[in-house]
Amino acid sequence: MIDSLKEKIIEKTNATVLANESMNNHTTYGIGGPAELFVLPSSKQDLIDTVRISRDYQEPITIIGSGSNLLISDNGIKGVVISIKHCLKEIRIDKEKVYVECGVILSKMVRESMKNNLKGLENLIGVPGTLGGALIMNAGAWGGEISENLETIEIFNEENKITLLSKKDIDFSYRSSSFAKESILLSATFKLKKSPKELIKDNFDLARSGRKNTQPLNYRSAGSVFKNPSSKHSAGMLIDQAGLKGFSVGDAEISNKHANFFVNNGSAKADDMLALIKKAKNAVKDKFNIDLELEVKLLGFDIKEISE
Ligand code: EPU
User: Is the pTM of this model over 0.85?
Assistant: First the structure.
C-alpha cells in the first residue's frame, strides 16, 4: 500500500518522496527513527495534492515544520510524514498587514516585520520553528504570543477544502490552540502597528539577550520540555529544585543552564530523552505534588511506552 502511495505521489506532484527517511535529520534534537514515507512538497499545490492522495489511501498523515518541538520515537513513524519546510515560504507586507505562509521560519517573519517598522512580533525573536507549528502551540516568549496580532488563518480542512478562519474561530490559550487535528495550516495574516524603530529594537534586544543568558542555545534541544504548571511555578525552577540539573541518561542530559531544556550531547536516543522526561515528571510529583504536562510533542511512541 505504502509503495503504491509513493508511486502515486511521485506521479502526481513535484514533491521529493523518500522511503524510510531517518527523522533524526529533520528534528532539532537530532533524534528519531525512520518515517515510512517522507514527503517534501515543493509548493502549496504539491502539499495539498499529497495530503489529498494520502487521505485517499487512508494512510496516517503527520505534518512537521522544522522539527523544533518534537521527540520522535527510535522506531520512527508509520504512514506519511509531510514536511512543509520547502513549501509555504511566502511573506507579503502591505502597510500594517503581514501575510505569511506557514512554512516560514518564525525569526524570518520577525525580522521582515521589523524592517518595515512594524511592532508586535519582536518578542518572538529566536523562538525556533515555523509559523505553522507556532500557531498550533500558540508559541510565546517574553510576554508576546503568536496569536496576539493574528487576524485570519487559511487552512486545508478535513473535507479537502481550503477555508479562511478568523481568529475568533479558534481558542488560543497558554501553549495551546483548538485547531481541528486534521487541519493543515497554510497561511495567516497579522495586523501589526507602525512604531518607532528604537522601541521595536529595545523589545527585540531584551528578548534576544534574555534568551541567550538563560537558555542553552548552543546545544541540540527542543526548547521547553514541559509547560509551566502555573504563573507561580515554572517547570525549569521545579526540575532545578528537584536537583536534576546535569542528570543524564546516555547522551541525553537535563541542561545545567536551564532545567526545562533537555539536550542531546551527541548520540542520544529517543528512549534516553523519554527516560529523562519520566525522571523529571516523577521527581517534581514526589517533591512538590505537581503534575508536569509536556510541551514537547511525542510522535511514534506506543501509549504504553509513554505512560508506564
Ligand atoms: N529557573 C530556575 N532554574 C532553571 C530554570 C529557570 O530556577 O533551571 C527559574 C528562573 O530563574 C526564573 C523562572 O524559573 O525565575 C522562569 O524561568 P525563565 O525566565 O527561564 O522562563 P521559563 O518560564 O522557564 C518561559 C517559556 C520559554 C520562553 C521564556 C521567556 C514555557 C514553558 N517556557 O520559560 O519558552 O522563552 O519563558 O519568555 O512557557 C518554549 O516554549 O520552548 C520556550 C523556550
Answer: yes
d(CA 177, CA 213): 29
Q: What is the pLDDT of residue 295?
A: 97
Query: Which residue in the list 175, 187, 234, 255 is annotated as catalytic?
Result: 175
* DSSP string across 180-236: -TT-EEEEEEEE-EE--HHHHHHHHHHHHHHHHHHS-TTSB--SBSB--SSSS--HH
Ligand 1 site residues, Cβ closer than 6 angstroms:
141-142, 214, 223-224, 227-228, 234-237, 240, 258-260, 295
Cβ atoms < 10 Å from Cβ of 20: 12
Residue closest via CA to ligand 1's atom 27 equals 141
Catalytic residue among 54, 221, 224, 255: 224
* pLDDT above 90 for 6: yes
For residues 101 and 26, give the distance between their C-alpha atoms in angstroms, rounded to a whole number: 20
224 is catalytic: yes
